[in-house]
Specification:
Layout (H helix, E strand, L loop, with lengths): L15 E6 L9 H12 L4 E6 L17 E2 L4 H7 L2 E3 L6 H6 L4 E4 L8 H4 L4 E3 L2 H8 L3 H5 L4 H11 L8 H7 L5
Parallel strand pairs: 1-2, 1-4, 2-3, 4-5, 5-6
């Protein structure tokens, strides 16, 4: 019996709004560390935690968290607007967070993958649960300052627009037969 709250379910407080976007456990997720992360985050009084399941995967792979965290069926754009920070470990939704200037945290201790986000150093990587728990309780302004926005902008231009925002459709068409 998972909860599906509206975002208004949280009291109007100064807590950091955190969205944890889930990916499938089959993508090299360390389930014990992952479940410990959720249980720990759900007990932090300094954050409002929403968990967003991946649309193609079930929640069966994680421990029952219904009494500890709020699981949302809100659409991703709504959650991105609501979020002060996002936690993810291998989802393309991270591109939209970066475009919208929402700090992205990668908990490297819950998976054994290397992502483009980490390689290009446009996110905050944390190596332990303790480091993550401490980070999410810091003021939002401090968390935002940990991100080099210039690097993020270059990353977006390169990874999304192929270093050519003005002619993006030409680049797209060079890879397909549709144009």
């Amino acid at each position: 019996n998972m909860q599906h709250p509206s975002l208004d379910a949280f009291p109007n407080n100064n807590n950091i709004n955190v969205v944890l976007f889930l990916s499938s456990a089959k993508y090299s997720v360390k389930l014990d560390a992952f479940n410990n992360m959720i249980e720990s985050l759900a007990t932090l009084a300094c954050i409002n935690l929403i968990i967003k399941p991946h649309p193609r995967f079930e929640l069966a792979e994680i421990n029952d968290i219904s009494d500890k965290a709020k699981v949302s069926v809100c659409d991703s754009p709504t959650l991105i607007k609501w979020a002060d920070i996002a936690i993810l470990y291998g989802s393309s939704i991270g591109f939209q967070f970066l475009i919208d200037k929402v700090p992205l945290i990668i908990p490297s201790f819950v998976h054994s993958n290397k992502t483009i986000y980490e390689t290009d150093r446009v996110t905050i990587s944390v190596n332990t649960l303790e480091e993550l728990s401490s980070l999410v309780c810091r003021p939002k302004s401090e968390i935002v300052n940990l991100i080099d926005q210039n690097k993020v902008d270059v990353f977006i231009d390169n990874a999304i627009y192929g270093d050519n925002r003005d002619n993006m459709m030409d680049i797209y068409c060079s890879f397909s037969d549709c144009c």
